[in-house]
Give the backbone structure.
Amino acid sequence: MLLHQGTLHLSRATPPLASWSLDGVFTLTLLAIDRSTDTPQPYLLIWPGERARSFWQLHSTKLTERAELRVELTQLRLHTHSDQPKVTHLLADVISLQVLPKAVNLHHKKPSSLCVD
């Protein structure tokens, strides 16, 4: 399994989406941005299941715009919206996610870039 780890920032434009599927599975969807390069890269993070629900219950108030996230992702794939052909995201499944404290945010001059193991 290919893993991707790094620091992303929550989007200012799109708030987190917590939803339940018809078969009762909780899913947390986040639009996060890799701002470690000159051209910011959007990631659409999809996290289904009980761990996502527990994370949401504990940390939903911390998931504000530009919140800094330490992520571990898998199943990275490119997605272009059919209704908006110029909008492309990297889709990824979440293995783990951590909201970094704001104090850490103030000391980081530039977030670490996403790396592949």
